[in-house]
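ingest -> validate -> predict -> emit
validate: passed (alphabet ok, no gaps, 314 aa)
predict: started
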Amino acid sequence: MLKIKNWRTTRDYIFITIGMALYALGFCGFILPEKVVIGGATGLSTIVYFLTGIPVAVTQYAINITLLAFAYRIVGRQFVVGTIFGATMISFFIGIFQPLFNDVALTNEPFMNVVIGGILAGLGVSLAYTHNGSSGGTDIVAAMVAKRTNVTIGRTMLYVDCIIISSSYLISWKIDLVIYGFVVLGITSYVADLVINTNRQAVQFTIFSRKWQSIATAINNDAHRGCTVLSGMGWYSKAEVKVLLVMCRKIEAVTISRIIKSIDPHAFITQANVNGVYGKGFDELKVKMKTPEGENGYGEEEELEVPQPVAVPK
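emit:
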């Protein structure tokens, strides 16, 4: 178990590093050369860079460390430790890529640069997030606000990012650059949500059939997925029926459908997308839980892996 845990931790750090490298490439190679200010600590550091010439990586790291120092007492050690690595990596790669590209975009089309930069940034953020990482910046502010108030993390991040992007107008006095900043924000958010949800998306089948035993056996043997048999009653006929409940990955849905169709073409089937299936054969549920007594005896908040067969229908 210790070897497995160490491997997962190492794998997470590797993918967080790759994600931050993609983010830095999108920012330095496509967004920064167009003088576009985006959200988060990166956007605030960009404003400082345009005003003073201080490299983005230096200001960005200083902002993240300052915010983490304030966040330590509010959100706890676990969040701070998990964010330091991502914040360090993103500043490291931006520090490498900014002088390498020297504010020269990789294409001559401003809008194309904004789109490509947003896509790369979204991929980087989602890659880090799906491996328990964070780039810091607005995430830290949002976590502190959510800890003390009822305002959600997503709403706080949106507010802060909008303020930073809008303030760039006071520097450039060009409304098109502000619009480009919001375009990057939208693309980054969309791509990140797409990747994160696709990674977790699964399908739930509810099957009504007189040949339920044959279908269940075939799904077990051919699709290598489990079935749950539920007892029910048709209210119109007052007859007892057996209902099969099946969870599978989205790419396995066609295989399940073919199995059902080949055994009972008249089966009644419902199919629903679910955002996550947790338990054996799927993902592990990772939640933050208050332990009775933490490492130092003060009841720290620790991240525990709790595998449970939970599905959340859309």
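Residues 293-314 have pLDDT under 50 and may be disordered.
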